[in-house]
Amino acid sequence: HADIAMYSAKEKGRNNFQFYAPRMHERAAKRLRLEGDLRRALERQELTLYYQPQVDVNTGRVVGAETLIRWQHPELGLIPPSEFVALAEETGLIGAIGEWVLRTACTQAKKWEQAGLGKLRIAINLSARQFSQPNLLRTVQSTLAESGLDPSNLELEITESTVMVDVQHTIRTLHELKNIDVHLSIDDFGTGFSSLSYLKQFPIDVLKVDQSFVRDITTDADNAMIVMSVISLAHNLRLQVIAEGVETVEQFNYLKENKCDQVQGYYFSKPLPADKFERFLQQDLPAEA
Ligand code: C2E
Ligand code: MG
Ligand code: MG
Ligand code: MG
């Protein structure tokens, strides 16, 4: 019996292998191609930044923007970060790409400030590998100096799962960044199971409530309660709260009633290329300005 079982497992295994091999090969080939293309994307200027407005709930004014990377691939079209940021991390390309994002975003924010569009706070996303790079502080400092952007106008977003990778490293790094006056936020809050006792040791300014909770606050009582609790937790720790993924007026009203500070989502605007974001800002300026 044992022999028969082994034999059929082998047979099955072989069949599975034959069945999956072409698809695995296809996927590996696609990855290899993307990796090669990504290596050249920076010098070919195919990477581009989109900006999504962050709106103050009480004044309705745009107070910041989150920078979101896109890859304008010559044949494959516009590729979202979900399809290449992990690859950039695995290949180490994230170092150069991350520095480009930081430099481009800071320069852009300074340009908007000089054009009289207001002192926006520009937020950029740091992936786990970027956050663990020993030259992070120096890179941030020199980029701020070169662009002339005030450090308090730069916000660095680190996901809740990234901060939990190595908590001692996180506490040290966040303090170094806080010392130069950069704003710090925890992204995707609520998805990473961070310990609340660590949270108060992180010198952060903002919690960003993950969009998975925001999505159905008006239909799912549990998620509504979670969002409400995160808001009061943040306020008790003297942090601001930004809700992401706000798509409807009902979601916005709930967040406003529950004293959320800022909101971001398709209800206000999708992420926009720089020129369109600029036009969005101009519409937002009060008439007398
Ligand atoms: P994230 O930082 O949590 O960004 C929020 C994501 O939600 C963005 O997706 C944004 O386009 C999307 N979003 C905004 N408003 C809405 C809404 O109302 N409804 C829905 N359904 N989605 C909304 P995106 O641009 O595809 O970025 C995905 C993730 O990729 C980001 O999540 C961030 O973790 C990462 N990422 C983006 N840009 C960069 C970057 O420059 N560097 C690094 N390391 N990661 C980045
Ligand atoms: Mg983010
Ligand atoms: Mg997020
Ligand atoms: Mg996310």
Automatic annotation (TrEMBL):
Interval of the full protein contained in this chain: 643 to 931 of 931
Cell compartments where the protein resides: Membrane
Protein's name in the database: EAL domain-containing protein
Annotated source species: Noviherbaspirillum album
Domain EAL: 31-285
